[in-house]
Amino acid sequence: LSTGSTVSELIVIGEVGQNITVPCRYRVQNRKSLTSMCWGRDRCPNSKCSQTIIWTDGWRVTEQHSSRYQLKGDLQRGDVSLTIVNAREADSGTYCCRVEIPGWFNDQVINHKVVVQKARISTASPHTYTSEQTSGPGSTSESSFTVTRTWPLVSASGAPQTASTPCSDPSDCLDVTANLQNMSVSLPREQHPEHGLYIGIGSCAALLLTLILALVLT
């Protein structure tokens, strides 16, 4: 072990709720080199530790102020780092690591400043989800809709009927003519006016031909 008192200071920063490890080590050459040490709150005094929180004889922990203060390192290799479990803001402050080395003023002394900060809180809402779509430069995205209209079909029953046999009597022919004049062809409202005009002309021509045939046959 090196002779002469060794004093140094380190800063350790952690967050609330985390396990914070405050480092401290000493050299171990053989089993006889193992020695006692202590951790305390506040700066190291001339001897021992003030407000002692944990002690070890070099082999095991002999005194422990709280289960939140633990020595998780390999003691037999000189790793006496202090672990603060589930750190709190009240754990902030100065910690003293004193390794007792035989002889006058030979102790290894390290003062650590521990800063425990509040956990960082994300400003994004945990219930907000954003979906974003991107397109290449100059490209545009368009939506097109095709509207298909189906026109109703004209059934054969709606078409004008013609006499299948010659008129046997002039009065019959007149009745046929009157019936043909009273009959109308219903056109779908959705059709264009030109289509209705063509159908009307065709119907008139059919009526005239029917009248001529009826007169000729009579």
User: What is the count of helical runs?
Assistant: 2
CATH class of the domain at 10-117: Mainly Beta
Shape: rod-shaped
End-to-end separation: 145 Å
The helix/strand class is alpha+beta
What value does the Rg take, in angstroms? 53 Å
Which consecutive residue ranges, at least 5 long each, have pLDDT under 50? 123-166, 184-191
CATH topology group of the domain at 10-117 = Immunoglobulin-like
* CATH A-level architecture of the domain at 10-117: Sandwich
Give the spatial strand order of the biggest sheet. Answer: 1-9-8-3-4-5
- Provide the helix percentage: 10-25%
Question: Main β-sheet: number of strands, strand sense, barrel status?
Answer: 6 strands, mixed
In percent, how much strand structure appears in the residues? Answer: 15-25%
Q: Please trace the helix and strand order, writing H or E for each element.
A: EEEEEEEEEHH
CATH-defined superfamily of the domain at 10-117:
Immunoglobulins
Query: Mean of residue pLDDT?
Result: 74
The tally of strands reads 9
Family: Belongs to the immunoglobulin superfamily. TIM family.
Organism: Loxia curvirostra
Region (Disordered): 125-144
Membrane topology: Single-pass type I membrane protein
